[in-house]
Amino acid sequence: MELTGKVAVVTGGNSGIGKAIVLALAAKGATIVIDWVADEQATEALEDQVRALGDQVIGVEADVSKVTDLERLVASAVTAFGRVDVMVNNAGIETRTSVLDTTEAQYDRVLAINLKSAFFGTQLAARQMIAQGGGGRIINVTSVHEDWPMPGNTAYCVSKGGMRMLTRTAGVELAAHGILVVGVGPGAVATPINASTLGDPAALAKLNAAIPLGRMAQPEEIGSVVAFLASDAASYLAATTIFADGGLMQSSPGL
Questions:
Q1: What residues are paired with 34 via a beta bridge?
Q2: CB 3.0-4.6 Å disulfide test: which of 19, 20, 26, 116 passes with 223?
Q3: Is residue 75 part of a domain?
Q4: Are the CB atoms for 8 and 86 separated by under 8 Å?
Q5: Can you tell me whether residue 6 is helix, strand or coil?
Q6: Active-site residue set
Q7: CATH number of domain containing 101
Q8: Which domain does 69 fall in, by range?
């Protein structure tokens, strides 16, 4: 399989898009390190799924908004498996609050989990990849909202816009080391973060009508894009974002 012998770390890896990424990478033979902060049972169940595919896996409880926890996450991967070849900065939250209503605490939490974790996750993974040699992949799970305004969710959009420039700037800086930094920008995905929309038939119908493909993505459809970017088939992609949005950005002025 394409990723056999590769060690992949996935932040926020035990649910939603993160879980789908873990399974997609494992299906290609990768050894997996699952970062989690809540629901240990879900992590253990996912570890069992990965082992059933014939791959090695560990779960590491780490709050990626803290650099010390990120350091421990990367160190745990190296201690267990000797290296890090793929770093997926996937952890993310949102508050669904406007620029007028967002509190300092909300802003700090969103930026710390979404952007700070991606910055230092990129830094720490890149240092390890350079030390071990052979290059690597750093994949930042961003959003269509790295480019596309979403009134009423300002801090989230700011964090994803920051990830956009992190991907581009770090991608240029690290290319000389054979480290490819690429973003994946999902549109609307059927995950717990969109539970309010999924539970509101009128809101869901409005959203689906705005998407040229007529539906939200399933998490597995994002996982497959990440697995492609982690493989040698994506060896000439760097410092850019691949959007997986069903055509949403091209058909609607914003949501």
A1: 10, 59
A2: 20
A3: yes
A4: yes
A5: coil
A6: 156
A7: 3.40.50.720
A8: 7-187+227-244
